[in-house]
Amino acid sequence: PNPTCGISPMLNRRSLDPEQRTLYGANLQPPAGYVFDAAVATTFSLDFETALAVPVSLALFAAENRDDTLSHPLALLEGAERIAGRLVVFTDAGHIQASARPHSRLCSLLERIIVEGAAPQGGAFHPKMWALRFTPLRPEDPARLRLLVLSRNLTRDRSWDIAATLDGVITRQPKAVNRPVADFLRQLPDLATVGVPDGTKTLVDDLSEDMRRAEWSLPEPFQSVSFAVNGLGGKPWRPEPCVRLGVVSPFCDDQTLSMLAGLASAEKPIFIGRSDELAQVPGTTLDGFARVAVLDEMAATEDGEEEDAAALQGLHAKAFIAERGWDTAITVGSGNATRPALLTGSNVEIFTTLIGKRSRVGSVEEILGDKGFGRLTRPFVRDETGAADAAQRAAEARLDQARREICRSGLTLRCERGEHAADSAPVRRVWLIPSEPLPLTGLGALRVWPITRGEGHARDVLEPLRQGQPADLGAMPLVDLTRFLACHLTDETEDVSILFSTGLMMEGLPAERHAAILRWVIDSKDAFFRYLRLLLSELGDPFVAALAAQDGSGQGAWRAASDDAPILEEMVRAFCRGGDQLRAIERLIARLETGDGDDTDPIPAEFRALWNTFRIALATQDAAHAE
């Protein structure tokens, strides 16, 4: 699997065939002859490590798996540096996953990429989408676009998901079919709960305009495409009356299933969902379906794979398959068969519908029956799973309400210079500041900590926030400062808790914090030279970038190639190409020299002497261009 590993049946000639699968990361790779230029993504939930691996996959190289990427901090650093200002990921406020252990300090670099948002009509911000632009290596070729509409979040989860991938080019004229996507992109910055990084609106507007003028190459055997967005005004999209209907949705409710059961005119629909959700639906409602099935446990783990209940099991795909006359329409996207997604439209959701001849796309039975995705399922048995009791569900609702209150209340962080630590290193003290008292009813405890510090540095801030008073989060070194807090909420009466992360605005964040992270990663002369090779690797040259990212512990040719690469020749070639990569080196050196009392210097003296020569040459080149 790629850095954003996940399994998705593809929409192609054998629609939703579980044997025809693609990996999330593969969908982000540029076409042959192209390199990544810009992207806007949306997701309901997100985990830091997966988000940190994405820039490496986009800008440097596609690692074999996410964990391999995370083992190369130099690649993570350079990936984030190259992608800064060209990638923004919008996620639902309060649904960034957190951990009790400390997260990598490099996660602070994601402050320039991740934007938390909220649905304007009170539901969840739930769309899963990527809008990408790629530039050609040959100037005469056109820029290309890609649109991914998925059921999958930006996490390491390996549930069964589904994705529709569309590739296209930018034309002169706007296309009416693209208006829902273009309008959706343009409104994203307005949904942010805590502002957006500089340049975000310009990036989003540019991609929105490109998507508005996109001409898509439809995957075989489909003949037309349409898009829909719910939750931003107007009548919400929902399946229309049809001859036959099949639905795949992990989450469902009585009212929505009743609506779906009445749409098909020829025979009762097929529904594939999850046992725990179906157990909440009355039997009389399920009687409206010809077949109600759940994912068979045997489909969750494949031969040769390790069993991991959290990562390898579960159904997460959402699809609506409708037969209409001679056609079959397949709608995929983020929306479940639930009231907020399809009936009230309070959730923000995105869908794409691909339509083709039933003789080529397949019928509902062919797609979801025993010869298609249905062979991974078994009939739902009501008594096989116990539904969560009412008290637990009430506690979960209280915690979710408190989560919303925390993320949308205007909480801020304040950073102040503190006393020096025992090793004489300067530290900063961080305060959590409420704008007004927060009720936070039903909570027994609220513990928070900076994600870079871990649960061992947690502070219980429930009472200060209820009183509207600042809460002391403790002192920490500059490199640990982050806008991301982990929040652990415990219910007052039930043994139920939730753990999540959210990003807050920080007053007084020192400008040299970024340099401190650089110096933490580039902590030796060896690391400095390996990072130089990453800077000198061209965008679109994944082999050189992968070699440069090696940590020196590899074996054989990989290590030798990394150690022996002639840096001077690479610098001369970079100068002849115009010097942009050398200017990146100049910025790096300037940042590394922005210290905070740290006397260590990873830049060798002999390189500084060499660099002065290149600095003069660059100044001469710039002066010549200015004339």
Mean model confidence by pLDDT: 85
Low confidence ranges: 1-14, 300-312, 552-564
Overall morphology: globular
How many strands, what sense, and barrel or not for the largest sheet? 8 strands, mixed
Across the major sheet, the strand order is 12-18-17-16-13-14-15-19
Strand percentage, roughly?
15-25%
Helix content: 25-40%
Tally of helical segments = 21
Secondary-structure-based class equals: alpha+beta
Structure, described:
- This protein has 627 residues and is an alpha+beta fold.
- It has 21 helices and 27 strands.
- A hairpin with a 2-residue loop joins strand 16 (319-324) and strand 17.
- Helix 2 packs across helix 4 and helix 16 (525-536) packs antiparallel against helix 17 (542-549).
- The longest helix has 22 residues, at 605-626.
- It is globular and about 80 Å long.
- The two termini are 51 Å apart.
Give the topology.
Blueprint: E1 7-9, E2 21-23, H1 24-28, E3 34-43, E4 46-47, H2 48-59, H3 66-70, H4 73-83, E5 87-92, E6 96-97, E7 114-117, E8 129-136, E9 144-150, E10 163-170, H5 179-187, H6 200-212, E11 214-217, E12 224-230, E13 244-248, H7 254-261, E14 270-273, H8 275-278, H9 283-286, E15 291-295, E16 319-324, E17 327-333, H10 339-343, E18 349-357, H11 358-361, H12 364-368, E19 377-379, H13 390-407, E20 412-417, E21 427-433, E22 443-450, E23 459-460, H14 462-467, E24 471-477, E25 484-491, E26 497-503, E27 505-507, H15 513-521, H16 525-536, H17 542-549, H18 556-564, H19 567-576, H20 580-592, H21 605-626
Parallel strand pairs: 3-5, 4-6, 5-7, 13-14, 14-15, 20-27
Antiparallel strand pairs: 1-2, 3-8, 8-9, 9-10, 10-11, 12-18, 13-16, 15-19, 16-17, 17-18, 20-21, 21-24, 22-23, 22-25, 25-26
Helix pairs in contact: 2-4, 5-6, 16-17, 16-19
